[in-house]
Design brief:
- This protein is mostly helical.
- Helix content is 70%, strand content 0%.
- The protein has helices at 3-16, 27-32, 37-66, 79-101, 103-109, 120-131, 136-165, 176-189, 196-201.
- The longest helix is centred in the first third of the chain and has 30 residues, at 37-66.
- It is globular, with a radius of gyration of 18 Å.
- The two termini are 16 Å apart.
């Protein structure tokens, strides 16, 4: 795998196939933990870690346990269940680590940290890596890029929400309505990256 291929995978995952703004996965933490920059950053770092760790565990499970090359048995139908169990265990590990070493961040994230377990972006990355038939290295770079895309979306939207709170919003749009409108505008802005990355590195 060349350096160009690595950059293409990462940049595509961040800008073109952004799991939050393009594929609309992981919306719960995107809307819930993006009010403050420190919380958005902490959540994003935790998601990047879980995405990479989940890929490192689920990829070998898929190819060596669920669907081995020998074809002796096929347990592919258990993929979703197994992947969810693995992600749930990894999230518990991250929560234990944060609670022990970063208690202030653990407290600020609150209920949203365990929600990484049900963050469909993490599961989506693991399954997408298998569907794309990536090698282990490609899958890891794609997961890292997807995590960076999640980080970018969270930080950008945190800034947008900060600007919204400082403005006079009509009463009928206050709260969730203006948040969803702002999210849709940020999402539309990312459609401009379609095709740009391939032409840039072409």
């Amino acid at each position: 795998m060349t350096i160009r291929g690595i950059f293409l995978i990462i940049l595509t995952a961040v800008f073109v196939n952004n799991y939050v703004l393009q594929q609309f996965l992981g919306i719960c933490p995107f809307l819930g933990v993006s009010k403050k920059l420190d919380q958005a950053t902490g959540m994003s770092i935790a998601v990047i870690f879980v995405m990479c760790l989940a890929t490192a565990v689920t990829w070998p499970i898929q190819y060596y346990l669920l669907k081995p090359q020998s074809g002796a048995y096929d347990l592919g139908y258990l993929q979703t269940v197994v992947f969810i169990l693995v992600i749930a265990a990894l999230v518990q590990l991250v929560e234990i680590i944060l609670k022990k070493y970063l208690p202030s961040l653990h407290k600020s994230l609150g209920v949203y940290l365990p929600l990484i377990t049900t963050n469909c972006a993490v599961l989506g990355v693991c399954i997408a890596n298998i569907d794309a038939e990536y090698t282990f290295a490609q899958a890891m770079f794609n997961s890292f890029g997807s995590g960076l895309g999640f980080f970018l979306a969270m930080v950008l939207f945190s800034g947008v929400r900060g600007r919204i709170e400082g403005n006079d919003v009509p009463e009928s749009f206050q709260g969730l309505p203006i948040t969803l409108i702002a999210a849709s505008i940020v999402s539309v802005s990312f459609f401009g990256f379609s095709g740009v990355i391939e032409n840039l590195l072409g």
